[in-house]
Amino acid sequence: MIPSSWYLILSAVLFSMGVAGFLIKRSLVTVFMSIELMLNAVNLSFVTFAHEWHMVKGQIFVFFVMMVAAAEAAVGLAIIIAIFRTRATLNVDQIDLMKF
Amino acid sequence: MHLALFLIFAAFALAGATNLLLQKHPINAALSLIVVMSSLAVLYLLLGAEFLAVAQIIVYAGAIMVLFTFVIMLLNEGVEEKTHGSRVAKIVGFPAVAVFLSLVASVILAEQNHLSPVGLNDGIIRIQDLSAVLFRDLLLPFEVTSVLILIAILGAVALARKDGHE
Amino acid sequence: MTLYLWLIPLLPLAGFLINGLLGSRLTKALVTTIALLAPLAALGVVVRAALLVWSSPASLPYVETCPLGWIHAGGLNIDFAFALDQLTLVMLLVITGVGFLIHIYSVGYMSLEEGYARYFAYLNLFLFFMTILVLAENALLMFVGWEGVGLASYLLIGFYFSRTSAANAGLKAFIVNRIGDFGFLIAIFLLLANFGSLSFSALAANIAAHPELQGGVITAIALCLLFGATGKSAQIPLYIWLPDAMEGPTPVSALIHAATMVTAGVYMIARTHFLYDRSPLALTVVAVIGAATALFAATIGLVQTDIKRVLAYSTVSQLGYMFLGCGVAAYSAAIFHLVTHAFFKALLFLAAGSVIHGLSGEQDLRKMGGLRKKLPITFWTMTAGVFAIAGFPGLSGFFSKDAILTAAFQQGSMGKALWFVGVVTALLTSFYMFRLWYLAFFGESRSDDHTHHPHESPWSMLGPLVLLAILSVVGGWMGFGEGLGRFGAFLRPVLTPANAPESSISTSLEIALLAIAVAVALTGWFIAHLFYGSRNNRAANLAAALPGPYKLMVGKYWIDELYNNTIIKPIFLFSRYILGWVVEEGIIRGSAWLLAGIVTLLGELLRRWQSGNLRSYAGWLAAGAALLLFAILSASLGASAFTLHLNWAGH
Predict the structure, then answer these.
(1) Distance of CA C289 to the CA centre of its chain
(2) In this structure, which CATH number among 1.10.287.3510, 3.40.1190.20, 1.20.120.50, 1.10.10.60 belongs to the domain A4-87?
(3) Segment C575-611, tens digit of pLDDT
(4) Which of B23, B115, B150, B163 is the best residue to mutate to test the A interface, defined by the most A CB atoms within 10 Å of its own CB?
(5) B154 at the C interface (CB within 8 A)?
(6) Does the distance separating the beta carbons of A27 and B115 come in below 8 Å?
C-alpha cells in the first residue's frame, strides 16, 4: 500500500520535465514529443484521482484526452512536414516568421 | 509487491523522460518516450484502470509514437544543431518550472493525509462500467470525438500533401 | 384689453423670413410690399396700443408673458416677457414710426441696387430685434435684443460686402459693440448675484424697498451697464465704430445710427435709472462721459469733408448730450432729446442721401455746391433739420437741448462746468451744421463731374423727408411748458428720479440760460456764414494758421491709431506668439504628440516581446502559469492554512 501522493508527485515531476524539454529542445519534433509527455503526466494524475474517488468519469476523461492527443499528433506532424518542406529545417530558432 | 512494481516502473518512466531531455537525435528521444509510455501503462494497471492501460499501449505507444517515428524517418533531419536559443527560455523558463514543481509538490504533500492509499486489492474499474457511462451518459461527446478524428485525418492529409496537386 | 405686444416684433420677423428666404425669387414689387407691410403693421399695433393707453393710463405697465417658460433652473426664473409702459411706448412710436418712413425712403434709394430683397430683410430683422430690446421686461431679453441689433447693424454696414472698407467697418462695429456687451453681461451677472432677478419691475421694487442700498455694488452694476451703453451708443471710449459705419447705405445710417440703435444705450440707462439714482458716482461718470464725448466729437466734425462723416460725428456729439441729460438725472429730458434727435437726425441723413443720390454718388463736401436751386425740396427739408439741430427757438432741438442744459446747470458746480461744455458744444454744432449747409447748397458748383446733372429725388424719397421736416419743426412743442410739458407729464410715472430737482431755479435765470442758448446758435451761424457763406479763403487761412490743432482734428485725434497700437497690436502679438506658438503648437500639439509618442514607445517595447521564437514564448508561458498557480494557492493557502491545519490535526 502506497500513498496516492506518490503517483501524484511522479505526475508532477514528469510534467515539469515535459515543460523543461519544451524549453531546451531545438528540434520541432522533439518539442512535440515533450508535449506528449506532458499530456501523459496529466493522464496519470487523472487516473490516480479516478481511483481515489472511485469515479468512472476520471478514466473516461483520460480516454478522451487520448483521442484528442491522437488527433492532435496527426495534424501536428502534418504541419511539421509542411514546415520542413518550405523551410528545409526543423530548428525552432529558425522558424520565427511570426515576429514583429 | 505493489511497492516494488511501482518503484521499478516509476524509475523507468523517470529514466525515459530524462533520456528524452538528454538525447540529441530525435529518434532516440522517440524511443525513450515509448519507454515512458509503456511504464505509464503498467502504472495505470496498478491503479485499476485496465482498459486505459491497454488503450495507452495501443493508441499512444502503438500508433502515435509509430507516427512520430515515421515522420522522423521521412524528414531525416539528423542530429540537432546547437543554435543560440532564447535567453528568456533559460532565464525565465527554468525558474518558472522549478517554482511550478515546488508549488504543486507542496500542495500534494500538504494534502497527502487526505488521500487514500493505493493497493493491489483495490477494485478495478471494469470495462463494463466504463462503457455503461460512455455509451449512455456521454454518448454525444463520444460521437463528437469521432467527428474530431475525421477532421484530423482530413486536415493531416491536406497539410502534408505536396503543393500543386488539385 | 389685449394690446397684442407680441405682434410688434413678430411682424418684422415675418418680413425678414419671407424676404430673406424667398426674396430672390419674388418680384421687386412683392418684396417691397412685404417689406413695407411689416413695419406698417407693427406701427399700426403700436398706435392702437398708444390710443388705448392714452384713454386709460392707469393700466400701465402692461405685461405679456409667453406661456412657454424660458429659463427655470433652480432659483433662476426668466421668461419671455414683454412690458409696455410709457417709456417703451415712446420708444416704440419712434422706432416704428421713423422706421416706417425710412423703409419708404429706402424703396426709392435702393431701387437700383443689387441685393434689394436682402436689404429689406436685414432692415426688418433690425426692427425685430430693436422692438424686442425696448419691449423686454427683463435684462436678459433686452440683452437678446441688444446683441441682435448689433448683428443687424453688422449685416447692414457691411451690406456692400464686396468693398473691403465696408466689410471691415461692419466687423469693427460688431467687435466694438461686443466689447461693450461684455460690460452688460457683467452687470447681468452682478444683478443676478445680488438681487436674484433680472426683471426690471422686480428690481425696481427691490431697490425701492431698501433705501439703505447706496453705492458699492450698485455703482459697479451701473458702471458696467454704462460700459455696455458706451459701446452701443458710441460714447468715449467705444465710439470709434460709428464714423466707419457710414460705409453702409444712407438709410441704414439714418435708421440705425441716428434714430434707433444708438439710442439703445440711452434707453437702457433710462430703464435702469432706479440703479443710477442710488449711485451719485455713476451718474457723475455718465454725465462727464456724455459731455466730453459731445465736445470731442464736435471738434472732429468741424473739419470733416465727407457729408456723412460730419453727420456721424454730429450723432456722437448729440448722443453725448443725451448721456449728459441722464447723468444729471434729467431722464425725461434725455428721452425728449432722443425723440427730437430721431426726427432731425434721420431727416438730415435722409436729406444727405438725397443729395448723394442726386449727385450720383458724390459725398465729398468740397465737390458740392450750388444745389439750392437744383434740389429745392431736399434743400428746404435739410434746412429745417439744420435749424433744428442748431437749436433755433421754436424748433424741436431747441426745447430738448435747452431742457438738458438747464437741468445740468442746476447740479452744483460740476453741473455748471458741464453746462459750459454743453454750451460750447452747441456753438460748435451750430457752426459745423451751417458749414455743411453752406458748402452743400450755396455758392458755385465745385463738382468735377460735368456729365451728370444733379437731379431731384423721386417722391418715395422726398415724402419721408417732408414728414420728418414737419416733425422736426413742430415736434418740440409737446415738451413745452413746466417740467417738459405734456411729454414730461406722460413719462413722469416711469422716469421720476429719486432726487428730482423740481425747477429750483428762478424764472429769470431760466430765461437767461435760454437767451445764451439762442445767442450761441446764432453765433455759430454767423461764424459759418463768415467762413463759408461766400467764396473766400478764410477757412483755409485759419487752418494754415493753426496747423497743430487742425491736423489733430482732421486725424480724429489719432484715436484709432492709438487703439491700434496699444490694444490691437498687443492682442495680435499675444495671439500669434503666446496663444499660437506656446499654447497651440506647444501645449496642445505637444500633448497630442506626447500621447502618441507614449503609445508608440510602448508599442516599440512590447513589440520586442513578439520575437517569433517558440522557446521564449514557452518560457513566458511557463512563467505565467507558475505565477497564476502561485497567486491562487497563496490566496487559498494563506487564508485557510491555519484552519485547515487544525482540521487535519483532528482528522
Answers:
(1) 16
(2) 1.10.287.3510
(3) 888 888 888 888 888 899 999 999 999 999 888 888 7
(4) B115
(5) no
(6) no
